[in-house]
Amino acid sequence: MAREDAPRDSYHLVGISFFILGLGTLLPWNFFITAIPYFQARLAGASNSTTRILSTNHTGPEDAFNFNNWVTLLSQLPLLLFTLLNSFLYQCVPETVRILGSLLAILLLFALTAALVKVDMSPGPFFSITMASVCFINSCSAVLQGSLFGQLGTMPSTYSTLFLSGQGLAGIFAALAMLLSMASGVDAQTSALGYFITPCVGILMSIMCYLSLPHLKFARYYLANKPSQAQAQELETKAELLQSDENGIPNSPQKVALTLDLDLEKEPESEPDEPQKPGKPSVFVVFQKIWLTALCLVLVFTVTLSVFPAITAMVTSSTSPGKWSQFFNPICCFLLFNIMDWLGRSLTSYFLWPDEDSRLLPLLVCLRFLFVPLFMLCHVPQRSRLPTLFPQDAYFITFMLLFAISNGYLVSLTMCLAPRQVLPHEREVAGALMTFFLALGLSCGASLSFLFKALL
What predicted TM-score, i.e. pTM, was given to this entire model? Predict the structure, then answer.
């Protein structure tokens, strides 16, 4: 709720700024994974004159360096690391330095990635430079998101919604940028260069938006009148729970205000007679209450990151080479996943099923493990062990629809149920634990992707 004496957000400039900042925080991960075929073509030794963002080869470029797996793992490990170092880093480094420093570092590293499009380089050094860039960019993104959520904790919940809306659109934006670059009709190098310049422009706009905040009366009012440290930290922690990660998976902006505001006022239905304790809650006691929900969150992200994008990006169209074959993966893998995942997260704005006392949630989460063999048995040309049981494109599209919408819904549902299982004064600890398990699930999934790739 906005304060009664607060100034108006003229022309919604502050809201637009936080929307663009949200978009900028998840652009790096999404632009890297959407361009996996470009990197595979470079690593396969394709010459600079023939390298394309998406190979027109019907079988797709060979993933000799396991790029799909490494880019996923080195994107998620920084999340786990900075989740553990969160409190120490934020106390030692000023907020402005964290935000502007992270944005500038991301901009420079993406500019390097764009410049490498024009540089003829052997696969080994190119892989090393790209992996180093992925690791540093996602480390900066982790710091950036946590710092911005800290600022959002001082403002009305509407601005958290706008920020998360921007994050949710980052994956769709990257997929559309890929499709436009492919359909532009220009030569391969120009197409790839234009694709990687696009996030540079997005990050530059984010920098301009952040620098404009001190000059806007509405932003100055809230950022200069911060609530107590405990309140800000609680809001920051709960907002962090609804991010994706660094994983580039879109958020549910429609649900954020509901989670942050209503859950603070609602007493949990379980253990109503337990008295509130003024001291710091026990981590062990809180974990005992939410362990099943936290485990469900870990398993959801483990399944998702174990096959997306490491396995799903390898699936090609079974039709004859042509336009559909070229556009199949960007549309049916990345664009479809991001849209349906966002839709799944949005569903929790209208209903929450099953509830926190139901044992049906673990069953639904475990059923998602079926997607691992289903995707591995789709039309993946580079295989030596498993057969292809689902060659038609319709199978892959159907699997992806169910995979994405179930991921979005179950992630948002577990985040929504966790605060209901503890007392109000325990929710900060519950939020910190859920953030850790979110990062743990992403890292476990990225690690398992190496095994599933080897089983193909």
Answer: 0.78
